[in-house]
Amino acid sequence: MTLPESMQAVVCRGPGDYRLERVQTPQPGPSELILKIQACGICSSDLKCRDGAAMYWGDGDRFPPFVKPPMIVGHEFAGEVVAMGEGAKAHFEVELGDRVVPEQILPCRQCFYCQRGHYWMCEVHNIFGFQGGVAEGGMAEYLRVPANAVLHSVDPRLSVEDAAFLEPLACGIHAVNRADIQFDDTVVIAGGGPIGLAMVQLAKLKTPKQLILVDTHDDRLALARDYGADHGFNPHRDDIAKEIRALTGGYGCEVYIDATGSSSGVVQGLEALRKLGRFVEFSVFKEPTTVDWSTISDRKELDIRGSHLSPHTYPVAINLLARGLVTTHGIVTHQVPLTDFERGFEIAAQRDSIKVVLITDDA
Ligand SMILES: [Zn+2]
Ligand SMILES: [Zn+2]
Description:
The protein is an alpha/beta fold and about 375 residues long. It has two domains: about 5-165 and about 330-360, Medium-chain alcohol dehydrogenases, catalytic domain (Quinone Oxidoreductase, Chain A, domain 1, Alpha-Beta Complex), CATH 3.90.180; about 170-305, 3-Layer(aba) Sandwich (Rossmann fold). The chain has twelve helices and 18 strands. Strands 3, 5, 6, 9, 10, 17 and 18 form a seven-stranded mixed β-sheet that branches. The protein has a six-stranded parallel β-sheet with strand order 13-12-11-14-15-16, with helices on both faces. A three-stranded antiparallel β-sheet has the order 2-1-4, with no helix packed on it. β1 and β2 (about 15-25) form a beta hairpin. It is globular, with a radius of gyration of 21 Å. It starts with 5 loop residues before the first strand and ends with a strand. One zinc ion binds near residues 75 and 167. It holds the Pfam family ADH_N.
């Protein structure tokens, strides 16, 4: 296949400055691939970046900018191999026409973490859709996969929505793995966004004694029940810690996974956990959170575990979707053409959407 001269792409030039542009179609260098993108999900991080959040654009002395504009945005995509640079076939063990997904991180392969196999914590930390020229994103017709990408084959049984949901699902799997769920556990997932709702399905597969979603939308609590949650509580209405104690003989839950992105979700979790419980923090926050650390030490001896990205979990995500054990039905609520990305971002920012996927037109 000959690649067209130019393609359409969503280019970020600065906070709030996102445009659909016609740009040069990337060409593959040695050991590189070009993917034709079918779909790319809009992540809440895309919205935060668009809105100028400090964690992307830097915050004076606290941390440097993460983004390198101008860049094509989007990190939730999969695509078909349509061109290969010299040596790429052997390097990635792929053929033209294969459906593949690169992990969102492009490990440098040289830093302290990469050298120890902890590639998802790579010190350089380039991520598709955030660094122009280095890691261009998937809200485009084509994408260049650099040689240092971590690539996986995508099962042909997966739908377009499934393929676009692999990245968030893989992140949810890592968080649920971090929770180390046991049969006898009462597990609370706080925050029913796309990944929180995926976590409900994933935690259910671990067969805990009780599974609970906490969210401020009753329709999401209902969806979680469809996915196998035993209870759904709404903090606007329910006293969360009290409800959880009532279900656990007065003790509290063993596992609390926070996917709320809000400080109140953290405070609520420390309160809801029983002694010796496990707290998994998945969220990214706008503001620092203040809590009484004596709860972690003196009162409850808690395990506090962070969760970042998706080490070794893309193959699990692909397999669970292919076997029908996890579904995107109910989570992917909207599909919008790439050319209409502004409307897609608007819908994604609204409370009644869960996951919006941009579909690349076959022009
Ligand atoms: Zn994301
Ligand atoms: Zn590295």
